[in-house]
Specification:
Length: 123
């Protein structure tokens, strides 16, 4: 399990965190203007939230990620299950409270998001 950002990732973390926050704000604007159309992708929002948590060394719990996605809880949990099946996200029971589930990006998810952000930041 990936615990925190690498040394190289920490060097770009503040700028990258702000870029991700801007992307999340853009998503909220699209969702507000266009409603529940295909222009809204809760799975992508979840991945961005997990990347931001990774960069900032924070933990993300399943319930908070579901709320942040804007989907009904059942639909959000299905989306998380799909991200896990796709190998982008992993889940772990919280050792201090077995009722809570921690979510993190897998190495594959982290590498994919890093590569994506590297490419769009170069433009």
């Amino acid at each position: 399990m990936t615990v925190g950002p690498s040394t190289a990732m920490r060097a770009v973390a503040p700028e990258r965190s702000e870029r991700i926050r801007a992307m999340l704000r853009e998503h909220k604007v699209r969702a507000r203007i266009f409603g529940g159309s295909a222009l809204s992708d809760p799975g992508w929002t979840m991945l961005l939230d997990l990347m931001l948590s990774h960069l900032e060394g924070r933990q993300t719990y399943l319930t908070s990620l579901c709320v942040a996605s804007g989907l009904p809880t059942t639909n959000a949990k299905r989306r998380v299950t799909q991200l896990i099946t796709d190998g982008l996200v992993q889940r772990e029971n919280d050792r201090s409270d077995r009722r809570r589930v921690l979510l993190t990006l897998t190495d594959r998810g982290l590498e994919g998001l890093s590569a994506y952000l590297d490419q769009i930041e170069r433009r």
